[in-house]
Every structure is written in C-alpha cells, then in structure tokens.
C-alpha cells in the first residue's frame, strides 16, 4: 500500500477530493433510513410538521448523496486511470533499462502480461477496492455508533456477528492473495505461448503445428481455470457464511429486541431503526470483507509488478561516461573472455586479442557458434566481458558514455527488424532531432532502397509491416538507417538467408558502398561478419574464429598459404559461395 501511495501521491489533490466526496456521500446516505423511519412514525402519530420536516431532510440528504457519489466516482475513476498509466510507463521504462541478459532470461509474452493484466489488477485497488472499503467502513462505523445509542445490549449482538464475519473474511482474503499470485503467473505463461505462436506463425504454419500450439496454450488455461474454480468455490463458501450471518443477525436482533419492546425497555420505533441500521452495519461489514478479499487478490497480483519495478537499471546506462571529440574508430579486444550470464559455465570467448585499426575493414569468419556475433555484442556493450576489456581509441568501453558511443556505430544485423512506423521514420530511427527528408533519401539511395521505396503507394510514408517487405528490402532499409548516421564504426552481419539473386546483388552493392564509405566519410572502420567470398577477399584483414578464440589473422592469400583453419573453412564452405 505504501508503494501504491508513492505512485499516486503526485495526484494528492484528486485523491483528497475523492475521499472528501466519499465522506460526504457516505454520511448523507447513512442518514436516509433514519428519516424514512422518522417519516413513517410521524405519519402514524399524525405529526404533520415533523413529517414534512423529515421529508425535506430526506430529499436534501438524497440529493447530497447523489451529487457527492458522482464526484467520488469521477475522481476515483480519474485517479485510477492516472495510476495505471503511471505504473505502466514506469514498468516499461524500468524494463527497457535492464541489461540484455535480463531479456535472455525473461520471455516477452510474460513481460507484456505484467504490463497489461497485472497493472490493470493493481489499479483496481484504488479505483474500486479501497474506495468501497472506505465508504462501507465509514458507514458501518457510523451506523454502529447509532445502534449503541438505540440499545447497547442489542448492539453487542450485532458486533458479535460482525466480528465472526470479519474473521471468516480475513481467512478468505489471505487465500485469495495467495492464489491470485499463481493465477497471474499462469496468465503470463499463457501469454508467452500465444506471443511465441504469433511471432513464429510461419514456422507453425509450415510444420502444421497449430493444434500442438493450441494444446500448449490450453495446458496453461486449464491450470488457470482450476485455480479460478478453487477461488470461486472459496467465494461461494464466503458468500454462504456471510448471507447466513447477515440474516441471522436480523433474526436474533428481532427476537431479543421484540422481547425488549414487549417488556417496555425500548419503543417499536427504536427497534425498527435498530433493525434498519443493524442491516446497514452487517451489510457494510460484508462489503468491506468482500473488497478486502479482492484487495488481497490485487495485492497478490501486484507483487511481481513491484519486484520488476525494484530492479535496478543497467549499470551501463546510469554510470556517467565520457564522450570523445572525434572518433577515430580504432577498436581493441584486449584479452577478452566471456560466458553468457544464462550459461555462466560455458566459455564462449577465451582470451581474444584483436586490434582493428582506424579505417580498417576486418572480416570475421568462422564456423557457426564460434563466437563471431558475441564479439559484436561485446563491442556494442550489450554484455560485459567476464575478463579483459574492449578499448575504443585508447579508452576502455566502460569509461565511455554508452548511449553516445552506440550513436557512433552503424549496425546492420543479419535479420533486420523494422518498427511499425513509416519507412522514413525507420530510416531516421535513433537520430537526434528532426532529420531532413533529403538526408533520408540520400541514405536510401546509397543503400539501393530509394527505387523500391518510391514505387510503394505512399513512398517514404508507407507504414512498415514486417511481413510484407521482402528480406532484401528490409535489409536495404536497415543499411540506409546505418548510413544516415555516417558512423565512424560500421558493424555488418552479412545476410546468409536466401535472398533472391536480384535482391542479393542490390544488398551486396549497398553493403560495398557502406563499407567503402561512399556514405560521407572517405573511410570508416568496418567489422563485418562475412559469409561471402567477395567480402572476405575485399577485406584488409581476415580474422578466423575457432571455438571462441582467434585462431588466425591475415589476408586471404596469407591465410590460404598457412593451410590452417581458414584454408579448411574455405575448402568446406567458401568454394560453394564463390561459384
Ligand atoms: N544469448 C545467449 N545466451 C546464451 N548463449 C548464447 C547466446 N547467444 C549465443 N550463445 C551461444 O554462444 C555461442 C557463440 O554464439 P555466436 O552467436 O557468437 O556464434 P556465431 O559464430 O556468431 O554463430 P553464427 O555464425 O551461427 O551466427 C554459441 O554456442 C551460442 O549457442
């Protein structure tokens, strides 16, 4: 509750207004039975002026109740919307500030479920549960005090019943809190399966595994249903006990109170008011209990959200770093060893030493799994090396302002992903401020993307749908994106996926231009994970990775002469590519 208060406290005014309206509405509502009873008994006794006096007050209280109930509902509704928005924003930015290793361990489906369903549950606490609990608690207390003034002996019977009701409710509330945590985890797991199936729909369709996916999804739904059924059974028991106690109180009060009336201890009017208000007390206790359980349920659901909100942001993003006036582009991997945090015992890179000089074009080759992409991830500082360091222009990477440094890099990955924005925004993605359309078109021309873009109905304003653009088209947009930054260091992961011959030719031409610096600079440093013989031959130096180590470096001819790993690799793989 304290955590929630911190989140909602910037809107103290609206919350204060909501609670003030709640108190006025609750107090005016609670007087209504009093005036109803008073009107009936003044009519019975023929007291006309009392009758109309009470009628006026009844109308006044009813109008006050209506007006302030509206204000209360509106204010709590607004506070609720603000809370859920703020909580989602905070959670989203906390998640985005985590290390990549965090996302290796968590699934996207589960995280989006935390953002969606869990945050919605939490927002219910303010908008619904607390609001109703507070209103009914206040009314129940007020009504009980009135009962004491009518007959403290009878009030004690009501207190006994309410205490029993509250005791049963707290047991039920604890059960709800525990089970709702599981329920939210199950919703997250089901979302994970759905997200995976949608994003890999082509694979699912190709292998005809739709039913299998429905089965995986249904497995979580079944577990969720079992938990919900258990919650429903517990709710049924809670309702059964509350209903029995609710009517039981009135029967007991009537029997004892009837005896008091017959013995002249209290009047029939007082007993009538007592019955009306005791109903109120029990009813309020019931409502408070019901929403207490619901509050516990929401608190259970909120635990994971708060756990995630407590995650400290990635050190790299918070640590202050330096910027360099001019990036020369000299990159050194100094005695780097590395294991992925999810598999700490499996060494992926071992004592890698490699210097890429400013303006040099270095091609990294090696068998699949030899650690080529990992090398790039370390240069981007997506992970921290287990030992050793990456040094850029003589400055260790961890001393540089990482956001600034990443802006000095142009990266084209093997399977570029585009955002659901228009093509121009995709090309300008990550650039500071407004980017001139001419600049965007110039980058697109260099990337051989301009012609296909202007042939689209909306040209550069065409909204990108990842599924409708071909692999080669996406690749060329990604190259344009990298070129627009005119980066000092360019990192390319050559596409091995089967591009059609025309696309491949266009992509290759674009990459050649990007590497050789037609994009603005005469020369830039290029690190390319190379699969094509033409790229490898054009490189100033070839680095061969074998089992996470640099096994050979040199030019194509030098390495062939060595007759080592590179020569074997070339015989095995590259001969087919050169044909
Ligand atoms: N996020 C990750 N978590 C754990 N292990 C990983 C991760 N990414 C890669 N690996 C493992 O690290 C090793 C090196 O992978 P890497 O992707 O660097 O190889 P690669 O040489 O680029 O391969 P390819 O040419 O097939 O892309 C592999 O054994 C791989 O399974």
TrEMBL record:
Residues 17-297 form the ABC transmembrane type-1 domain. GO terms for cellular component: mitochondrial inner membrane. Gene3D superfamilies: ABC transporter type 1, transmembrane domain, P-loop containing nucleotide triphosphate hydrolases. The keyword Transmembrane helix applies. GO terms for molecular function: ABC-type transporter activity; ATP binding; ATP hydrolysis activity. Keywords: ATP-binding, Membrane, Nucleotide-binding, Transmembrane, Transmembrane helix, Transport. It is a multi-pass membrane protein. It is found in: Mitochondrion inner membrane. InterPro entries: AAA+_ATPase, ABC1_TM_dom, ABC1_TM_sf, ABC_transporter-like_ATP-bd, ABC_transporter-like_CS, P-loop_NTPase, Type_1_exporter. The keyword Ligase does not apply. The chain crosses the membrane at residues 12-37, 57-79, 143-168. Residues 331-572 form the ABC transporter domain. This is Uncharacterized protein. The lineage of its organism: Eukaryota, Viridiplantae, Streptophyta, Embryophyta, Bryophyta.
